[in-house]
C-alpha cells in the first residue's frame, strides 16, 4: 500500500503503531502488532452481528513487519470532540450530543442483546477483575483490600447474576463514539449487558471537571430511558437497574488508571487521592442505597480545596 496517500493522525496509545487517514477522509489505516490482528478479527465478527462498527476493507503486513488494517471512516469527529467544540462559555453538553449518544448506545445495546452468552459466576468474576483491574487497585491501595470492599463487590456480582453476558467494548465513552458507530475495540471482552453503554454520561464525573463538560440530570435521565426502552424491546427487562454495580466497577477502573505517586509530586498525588475519594464515596452510596449517584461527586477543584484545608484524607 502506498503510504504517500495516507496522512498521519496520531500514535496509538496502547500499542506500537499509528493511525492514518486517507486523503479524501473516507478510510482509516491503523498499524500495530498481534493485538491489532486480534482486534480486527473481533471487529469483523461483530460487524456481521450488526454491531455499529467500522467495516474492515483491507488488512496485511507492512514492509517493516507491522500488521495493518484499513477500515471505513465513521466520521471525522467523535462525540467528545463535538462536545468540546460546541461549548460556548458554559460546561453543559448540548442536547443533540447526548441524544445522539443515546441513539448510538441503543443501537449497540440491541445488537449485543441479540447475541447473548450464558452468564456464570466465574465469567462474572473474571469480568469484575478485568474491567476493574482489582488486582492492581488492591496492590496499590492495600487499605482498600478489606472485607468491606469485597462484601460490596460480592453484592454487586450477586445482583448481576441474572444479567446476560455479551461481547463488549470495555472502554466505551464519548471519545470512542461517533454518530455512525463505535471505534477502538482493542479492549473487547465479555461484559454484562449494559456495562458498555449505561455509564457513558456518568463517567464524565470521574474526570473531575477536566473534560470541560458535564451532563445535566435531565440529559442523564433521557439517556437511561432510551436504553431501557431498547433493553425492554430485546430482553423484556430494563437495563438501568444495574447502573449501581456498573459504576462501582468504573470507580475501580478509574482508580487503577491513577497510580499512587510520591507526595512531592503534588498534582499526581492529588489526583490519586481524588480517585480514591470517589471510590470510597461511591462504595458508601452503594452500601446505603444500592446505587451510585455521580451528581454528588465533588469536582477536582472542590476536592483540592478541601484536601488542602484538611477535609479529606
Q: Quick one: overall form? A: globular
User: What helical percentage do the residues reach?
Assistant: 40-55%
Cα separation of the termini: 56 Å
Would you list the SSEs in sequence order as H and E? EEEHEEHHHHHEEEEHHHH
Looking at how many chains there are and whether they match, the oligomeric state comes to single chain
State which percent range the strand residues make up.
5-15%
Task: Please state the structural category.
Answer: alpha+beta
Order of strands across the main sheet = 1-2-3-5-4
Radius of gyration: 20 Å
The number of helical elements comes to 10
Q: What about the largest sheet?
A: 5 strands, antiparallel
What is the overall pLDDT average? 93
| DSSP strand tally | 9
Low-confidence stretches: none
Which tags fit this structure?
alpha+beta; 313 residues; two-stranded antiparallel ribbon; 44% helix; 5-stranded antiparallel sheet; 9 strands
